[in-house]
Amino acid sequence: MTTVIIEGLGLIGGSLALALKQEVADTYLIGLDQNLSSLRFAKQAGIIDEIGTGLAAVAPQADVIILATPVEKIAASLRLLATLTLKPNVIITDTGSTKQVVMAAAAPLLTQGVTVIGGHPMAGSHKSGVHAANADLFRSAYYFLVPGQQTAPLQVARLQRLLAGTNAKFLQVEPTEHDHIVGMLSHVPHMLAATLVNETTQQFKDSPTALRLAAGGFRDMTRIASSDPQMWADILLTNTAPIQQILHRYIGDLTDLEQAMTARDQTALLDFFNQAKVTRDAINPQKAGAIPGFFDVFVDIPDRTGAIAEVTTILAQAEIQLVNIQVLETREELNGILQITFASEAAQQQAQQLLAAQQINILRRA
Ligand SMILES: NC(=O)C1=CN([C@@H]2O[C@H](COP(=O)(O)OP(=O)(O)OC[C@H]3O[C@@H](n4cnc5c(N)ncnc54)[C@H](O)[C@@H]3O)[C@@H](O)[C@H]2O)C=CC1
Ligand SMILES: O=C(O)C(=O)Cc1ccc(O)cc1
């Protein structure tokens, strides 16, 4: 029997719990969370076996401790764990989006010889809470592991075996490198998305037309602004220096762009957008990105009853599983676009062939 404690039964903690149970049959899972209704739901749904009374009370019986709360709380729990008597072979890991602060808080435990391996699954969503948990959330996603300096490779391998049910791709990095990479690819983009939304709030109030138009590309660019505010406040407060560095470069780039425009400098403007286009076009959308490679098919949907059902029925009859389905309201008065996401390239291609054979119009999109 492996006793696993998960503190923070939200989207990530809940999804890990489900993935762990799937892989290791004799896992006994104890859940901790400040939100009692999440704990009750998790217990009722069989995501956890027991509701814990508190970290200090249950930690001594754990073989594995997973901290999946916002980052500041992860750091506080690591400091608390250093004051307790734990099982000699315990593995402590976390899921926090920043790693320097987490590993600094782990230092007293590491000094005691306790195994602490920082973790960060690069998959998730703008949704939060245990209700959004999904055993398959981490499939094919990169999963950063950040061992302590003295941590034996054997222990890292042990953690990877425990987490095998995530079907993630593990990648070892140093805390500083980690925080710079995610600052660039996740944290600053998130700040920009939230700023875009805040900047347009008043416009939406004043103009219903603006709000209607926002249903298209703007909505896609700003999806992540719906994420949990506490989680993002903690991320910025624990990755401040790397984010500041990156942000200053952005501000410089935008200032240059504005100056080129004001100076009517066609060449500079063309250079700027050309450079962006060449780089963006070279990214394979199904391989790159923080989020696992999703395989989309875009279908033209005529504006008549039953049009979407026709498409989904064809896929259901062929038993092709969908990861997600949504209507993109990008073109008012015209046909809608149905975006169907599959978990694999094989499913995507099979769906494409089946739909094309039924005269359904498949759109090409980069
Ligand atoms: N949402 C995402 O896409 C990803 C998030 N992460 C990281 O994983 C961690 C968890 O994120 P999510 O699951 O998305 O958040 P969430 O908001 O879905 O879940 C967090 C859970 O922690 C609990 N919690 C918060 N403060 C607490 C406290 N002081 N004591 C006890 N429980 C507390 C909340 O009640 C909630 O159930 C965060 O550190 C986040 O940075 C990592 C990868 C992806
Ligand atoms: O939903 C998205 O696009 C995300 O970017 C999710 C996400 C949020 C925070 C992380 O540390 C890692 C992934």
UniProtKB/TrEMBL annotation:
Gene3D superfamilies: 3.30.70.260, 6-phosphogluconate dehydrogenase C-terminal like domain (1.10.3660.10), NAD(P)-binding Rossmann-like Domain (3.40.50.720)
Keyword Amino-acid biosynthesis among UniProt keywords: yes
Enzyme nomenclature, EC number: 1.3.1.12
Superkingdom of the organism of origin: Bacteria
PROSITE patterns assigned: ACT, PDH_ADH
Chain ranges of the ACT domain: 296-366
All residue ranges annotated as the Prephenate/arogenate dehydrogenase domain in the record: 1-291
Catalysed transformations (reactions): prephenate + NAD(+) = 3-(4-hydroxyphenyl)pyruvate + CO2 + NADH
Keywords assigned by UniProt, alphabetized: Amino-acid biosynthesis, Aromatic amino acid biosynthesis, NAD, Oxidoreductase, Tyrosine biosynthesis
Pfam families: ACT, PDH_C, PDH_N
GO MF entries: prephenate dehydrogenase (NAD+) activity
Pathway(s): Amino-acid biosynthesis; L-tyrosine biosynthesis; (4-hydroxyphenyl)pyruvate from prephenate (NAD(+) route): step 1/1
Family that this chain belongs to: Belongs to the prephenate/arogenate dehydrogenase family.
Protein name: Prephenate dehydrogenase
